[in-house]
Amino acid sequence: MLPRRQDFGMKKSGGPRNSSVINFRTTVIPGSVRRSSAVLPSVLTFLVIVASGGLLLMIEKGMLSSMETPPPRGAGKRQDFMRQVGKLSPGAEDVDSQILQEIRNRTIKSMCSQKNMPHSIMSLTPLQRKTLLQHILVNDQYHFLYCYVPKVACSNWKRVLKVLNGVLESVDVSIKMDHRSDLQFLSSFKPEQIQYRLKHYFKFMFVREPMERLLSAYRNKFGEIESYQKKYGVEIVKRYRKTRAKDAPVKGDDVTFAEFVRYLLDTDAERMNEHWMPVYNLCQPCAVSYDFIGSYEHLERDSEFVLQRIGAPPHVRFPERQTWYKPVTTETLHYYLCTLPQKLLRELLPKYILDFSLFAYHLPNTTTEHCRH
Ligand SMILES: *[C@@H]1O[C@H](CO)[C@@H](O)[C@H](O)[C@H]1NC(C)=O
Ligand SMILES: *[C@@H]1O[C@H](CO)[C@@H](O)[C@H](O)[C@H]1NC(C)=O
């Protein structure tokens, strides 16, 4: 459920996570997902259980509409904005959002309570911890931690952080985003300082449908960015394109989606580039108990919620979509997934299964029936 204002500052941290309603027959071992596609059936069973939990919740939440929404923290404009958002979607969106949060919350709780899952950052391997800490941005003034996920509006969130720091005047200043400067990463703190922030700060992250994120990374990096074509594209073409003439120069600017997927299947999730590394590995939602997990699919609403929750001043807004923004449409995703050889697809989904299940996304329908349309 969406945290209410009164909860602020009293977040229990590392509270009992053993409310394991469900016992798995098979246990998911982080990092081993790549090898064991046997995990898939149990996760599917699990998803069905989660889905029915969601239904129950909806029934429970029949009373939800009568509950008052959390009082806005900011004054003036932010309240007005919230009222407008409220008008566009009279209550329904709010209830949906709370249900989704609750489903994610329950799923994460029960999956993470399995004994092989990490329970704190100390139970991560040094490599896992390093990746995590390098992806958590810190704001000491507003007391929050944001785990950024590339391809999930992270540039926009970084802009917001820079405005909150006072480095940028407004989120609309048209500069190219510098992804390192003027940002504070949790990895730059000492262990006690890290623990303190993890315990006391408001922690959030944003997620996106896993295949959509992957496709977005593929189209952006291999379609547009020369350094990626050189660094990854050349290697991928050399490794996977058997038909190429041996002495022809390889530019790496025409990697196909199937070749990219082959490359992903051969790469250890923990060593992937951050643009396609599973969100699970970037943000470790079992080791860090996030207070809020927003969705790219409800970016505007969820971002506004976070801004309100951290007490951002009213003039700090979440930026509008950039004009050059090219959305991944349902049709595009359908096309790419349906043209992918079944064998690759069957291995790809397990690789990202924790992102699907923990954050409550359906597995894509890639039956021949569905793909015919
Ligand atoms: C999950 O629920 C707990 C309380 O039961 C709450 O404190 C926490 O913020 C929730 N987390 C998310 C991501 O909604
Ligand atoms: C997949 O799509 C087909 C055709 O649209 C439909 O008949 C089938 O029920 C769907 N399967 C799932 C699991 O949604």
Task: Describe this structure as you would to a colleague.
The chain has 15 helices and four strands. The protein is mostly helical and 373 residues long. The protein folds into two domains: 39-209 and 281-310, no CATH class; 212-270 and 329-371, no CATH class. The chain has a four-stranded mixed β-sheet. Helix 1 (39-60) packs across helix 3 (92-112), helix 7 packs across helix 8 and helix 9 (257-265) crosses helix 13 (342-351). The longest helix has 22 residues, at 39-60. The radius of gyration is 21 Å and the shape is globular. Residues 1-38, 52-76 and 83-90 have low confidence and may be disordered. The structure holds 2-acetamido-2-deoxy-beta-D-glucopyranose (2 copies). It is a single-pass type II membrane protein. Belongs to the sulfotransferase 2 family. One of its GO terms (cellular component) is Golgi membrane. It is found in: Golgi apparatus membrane. One of its GO terms (molecular function) is sulfotransferase activity.
